[in-house]
Write a structure and sequence with these properties.
Helix 7 crosses helix 8. The radius of gyration is 31 Å and the shape is extended. The protein is built from nine helices and eleven strands. The chain has 370 residues and is α/β, with parallel strands linked by helices. The chain has a six-stranded mixed sheet, sandwiched between helices. The protein binds guanosine-5'-triphosphate and magnesium ion. The site of magnesium ion has 4 residues, from helix 2. The site of magnesium ion (MG) has 4 residues, from helix 2.
């Protein structure tokens, strides 16, 4: 049969047809946007950094607001995580933001276990999501997703090198969360020292095999900006709650006897770079990586641990149903064995008791007759 006008056959047996008029499915992306906007978004930030390194100040500066803040004391027996959720709105976009703070991080004399509460917190959020996914009656549509989308790792501005606590913690977290390392209080380090410090940090991360988050460069529209920004990692940031008048503008800054450090001045620090990269350009990628990479890994390990597999021992596809039936069969056989064992044990006990009774009977008989 002759192909219709505009009908192109493709190698996969699908045909490409041209349409004679407007159908309307070109509005699908707009429908998706509309639906997402109505539903709202969630974004969860984990701030890992020692007490007093500037976590709360940076969060306030990033969102241009004042979040609840309780200063941590330096005498915590162990590290604990403090999540706080806020409803924010920008234009018509609703954001459920959770900021999780590591309280007491770096304060213990023995820091061997400092990473543990952080790992446990991240895993618990994955587990909650998995449990929701595995429910018969799921409500993922309005589920409050608390999985951590980005971990801001605050590095002390020593100008020296990373601490072993930093390396150990980042290594433990790198397969679970998108790590964005930042140099905190970057106004306390000179320009030359900062340059060398950044190079040192990156080489230490590489030599210790720590995988940090890199802004994606596979999307043509953002490849340029992301690859140039990747070169600035780790971002050196300054936070401030003070507003200072510079010329005729009021800006967030830190005022010193010798001058003013402007937070949003790219010549002074990387604060704007961090904000642009984390929110304006790559927020969706951070959310996607969390789901497609980190959660996927957690889910896979967890299901394998539970005995689920995609393939049988001959590498043939194995469905969930088949796994379930195989597990059920295994369970029933196991149960049968246990029943058999118990029955045997019971028979043996009866035999033993019978023998004991007979022995006693004999003794009594001998006693009476003798
Ligand atoms: P805890 O929650 O108690 O662990 O502290 P934190 O990490 O939240 O630190 P916070 O933001 O409370 O800041 C502690 C001190 O550091 C405050 O006096 C801040 O003004 C100061 N600070 C915060 N950011 C910066 C910065 O970028 N540069 C300098 N020089 N000081 C800063
Ligand atoms: Mg704080």
């Amino acid at each position: 049969m002759a192909a219709a006008d505009g009908d192109v056959s493709t190698s996969e047996g699908k045909r490409s047809l041209s349409l004679g008029g407007h159908v309307g499915f070109d509005s699908l992306p707009d429908q998706l946007v509309g639906k997402s906007v109505t539903q709202g978004f969630s974004f969860n930030i984990l701030c890992v950094g020692e007490t007093g390194i500037g976590k709360s100040t940076l969060m306030n500066t990033l969102f241009n607001t004042t979040f609840e803040n309780e200063e941590a004391c330096h005498f915590q027996e162990d590290v604990h995580l403090r999540p706080r959720t806020y409803e924010l709105q920008e234009s018509n976009v609703q954001l459920k933001l959770t900021v999780v703070d590591t309280v007491g991080f770096g304060d213990q004399i023995n820091k061997d276990e400092s990473f543990k509460p952080i790992v446990d917190y991240i895993d618990t959020q994955f587990e909650n999501y998995l449990q929701e996914e595995l429910k018969i009656k799921r409500s993922l549509f309005n589920y409050h997703d608390t999985r951590i989308h980005v971990c801001l790792y605050f590095i002390a501005p020593t100008g020296h090198s990373l601490k072993s606590l930093d390396l150990v913690t980042m290594k433990k977290l790198d397969s679970k969360v998108n790590i964005v390392p930042i140099i905190a209080k970057a106004d306390t380090i000179s320009k030359n020292e900062l340059h060398k410090f950044k190079i040192k940090i990156m080489s230490e991360l590489v030599s210790n095999g720590v995988q940090i988050y890199h802004f994606p460069t596979d999307d043509d529209t953002i490849t340029g900006i992301n690859s140039s920004m990747n070169a600035h990692i780790p971002f050196a940031v300054v936070g401030s709650s003070e507003e200072v008048k510079v010329g005729n503008k009021t800006v967030r800054a830190r005022l010193y006897p010798w001058g003013v450090v402007q937070v949003e001045n790219e010549n002074h620090c990387d604060f704007v770079r961090l904000r642009e990269m984390m929110f304006r350009v790559n927020m969706e990628d951070l959310r996607e990586q969390t789901h497609a990479r980190h959660y996927e890994l957690y889910r896979r390990c967890k299901l394998e641990e539970m005995g689920f597999k995609d393939t049988d021992p001959d590498s043939e596809p194995f469905s969930l149903q088949e796994t379930y039936e195989a597990k059920r069969k295994e369970f029933l056989i196991d149960l049968q064995h246990k029943e058999e064992e118990m029955r045997q044990m019971f028979v043996n006990r009866v035999k033993e008791t019978e023998a004991e009774l007979k022995e006693k009977e004999k003794e009594v008989f001998q006693h009476v007759c003798g």
